[in-house]
Amino acid sequence: MSAPGNGRSPMTNGEWMIECDDIYKAFDGHPVLSGVDCQIPAGKISVVMGPSGTGKSVLLRHIVGLLTPDRGDVRVAGKSVPRLNEEDLLELRRNVGMLFQDGALFSSMNLYDNVAFPLRQHTKKSESEIREIVKQRLDEVGLLGSEQKMPNELSGGMRKRAGFARALVLEPEILLFDEPDSGLDPVRTALLCDLIKEIQRKYGSTGIVISHDIKSCFNIGDHIVLLHGGKVVEQGSKEQIQQSQNPFTQQFIKGGIEGPLGME
Ligand SMILES: Nc1ncnc2c1ncn2[C@@H]1O[C@H](COP(=O)(O)OP(=O)(O)OP(=O)(O)O)[C@@H](O)[C@H]1O
Ligand SMILES: [Mg+2]
User: Fold this and answer.
1) What DSSP state is assigned to residue 70?
2) Mutate which of 32, 59, 181, 264 to test ligand 1's pocket (most atoms within 8 Å of Cβ)?
3) Would residue 222 count as lying in a domain?
4) Residue 26 belongs to some domain of the structure
């Protein structure tokens, strides 16, 4: 399951790579996650869907230990993330490529240095090896030629694609993408979905993609998790979700006005 030739030991833990066990999380007394239970299959792409503000990004942050649950547990490859020591947490983050919702580029670095950053920080590669990889990744996301631009000189979609390139440079075993397709035009969205699938297939990585775009969700997701009201409403294979009779699921995937979902 490990990326071929990257010298790391595989992280596999059987069928599930990520397990969320009854996670509770509140901020200032306001509950966001109220008993989230989900299992993310190893070597597949799972899509997490749900209305805005349900806690999708919060859930993703628990997986890399950026947030700690008030109750419950998150396990990655069988290891409890809240219980990892500093060193093991760093090791986990080396194996996870994360694209934050806002791209999260370092504002003081140009595009090239932003994408090269994880390689300089986590590997002993020479600058010429790094140049090779950075150029390849930037080419894949259509940003070759913009290397010298600073983040504030990039459009929202370009920043998103730059964050995507950066998330992939270490060829991570786990890919977490927070709305990789928002702010992109339909052609770029389709290309990005293809790229996610291609990378996943090439390295056998486990991916979680958060998306509002039902079309991209069903296009790339093998497994779907639907989040609402701080809980998982439904999870299962793409086919199971498409055929679901659950009124929330129906309304969400069809984008209908009629149904349990309102503008809360
Ligand atoms: N660090 C934080 N401190 C306080 N509240 C937070 C924090 N992070 C998230 N929240 C709150 O948690 C709730 C869920 O936020 P989250 O960003 O996970 O939503 P989301 O499902 O990703 O929404 P969207 O689809 O709009 O990105 C929101 O009400 C948000 O204000
Ligand atoms: Mg979010």
Assistant:
1) S
2) 32
3) yes
4) yes
User: Is residue 263 over pLDDT 60?
Assistant: no
**Same structural domain, 82 and 18:** yes
Q: 160 with 179, same domain?
A: no
Domain check: are 164 and 53 in the same one? Answer: no
Are 177 and 220 part of one and the same domain? yes
Ligand with an atom nearest the CA of residue 58: 1
pLDDT of residue 6: 44
Residues 130, 176 within the same domain: no
Confirm if 213 and 115 have CB atoms less than 8 A apart.
no
In testing the pocket of ligand 1, which one of 23, 27, 49 has its CB within 8 Å of the most ligand atoms?
Answer: 27
* Averaged pLDDT score across all residues of the chain: 86
Question: How far is it, in rounded angstroms, from Cα 78 to Cα 73?
Answer: 11
pLDDT digits (tens, 9 = 90+) for 90-99: 889 888 988 8
134: its two tokens:
């950075």
- Encoding tokens for residue 108? 């003081």
Q: Are residues 83 and 192 in the same domain?
A: yes
DSSP-derived letter for residue 82 is G
The residue among 108 and 104 whose pLDDT is bigger is 108
Say whether pTM exceeds 0.70. Answer: yes
